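Question (not urgent): is this output format expected?
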Amino acid sequence: MALVRALIERAITLAFSAFYGLLVVGKLLLDTVKLGPGTVLGHKKRSIPPKCLEDPSLGTHGYAHLEDIRMHYVSNGAEDKPLMLLVHGFPEFWYSWRYQLKEFKDNYRVVAVDLRGYGDSDKPPGISEYAVPKHVNDLKQFITALGYNDCVLVGHDWGGAIAWAFADMHPDMISRLVIMNCPNARAFNQHIQKSFTQFKMSWYMFFFQLPCLPEFALQFNDFAALDTLIKSEKLGVKSEYTTEDDMEAYKYNFTRNSFTGPVNFYRSVFSLANLNRDRKKIEGMGTLGITMPTLIIWGDQDGALDKPLAELSAKACKGKVEIKYVEGASHWVQMDRPDLVNKLIREFLSAE
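Got this back:
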């Protein structure tokens, strides 16, 4: 019965994937006609990293050698301080935490990782290499490799999804949990089945199931998709905190690295093998209850995730949980309002 259900879900997913793929191809063709193939099919050469990526005040770079990958990270603060682990989302890398790396270094060893498939971390081939349990295991090994037993875990977007799962599976390794604009897996699965608004917002998840085309679309016209996601009026950062230099940092990062690993995050969720094998594990995340103190920070102008998901996700928490909405902030809340986000985190960490 489970296999039949998985096959039906897969067929529906592929149908929507094909539909959205046709829409994207149409948009790409129109842009090619309008701007010319020479413009849209190439991108600026970026052989030298932007100066903002070499800012010593952000910390020092390092690598942790795990069981099957090498994970890159940036660390700021003394090694004898408690660990604050920052986990980015899509399509980001460690630099998304630049404001937090500086803010908390006096009280914590603040470490921002590149998840597998991103930045300077290894990029194993195969969709199954990007399933949620793989990322959970990476973080478990990483914390141990740094010499810690636990940490303050902070996750945004996909990093938040991994953090939710990690908190459910390894509660003893988290002292406090901070989630930014990411629902608990069960909350999202339930909400998308009932909310047409969220279903429309999630169109890209279906599009990303197609082979090759998503990677091509994300690189098209000198990574214009990054500008749309991070800086556009509808979806992007609403403040002055993300500059053109910052955008060059993102484009430099993805010029050097393929989008296949990041897109495989989404493919792994929908893959037939994972639907059949990991359904109970993934859907069950949150059913045991998140026991550690938890802070959910939510930019209320998120163009990808519906606001009610914050309240639904809080229901997974058996321990103390707070929800703080950041008015006027986008999905990229830690970059959009770093001053307020840092204040909220500090107040949460200092509370008894």
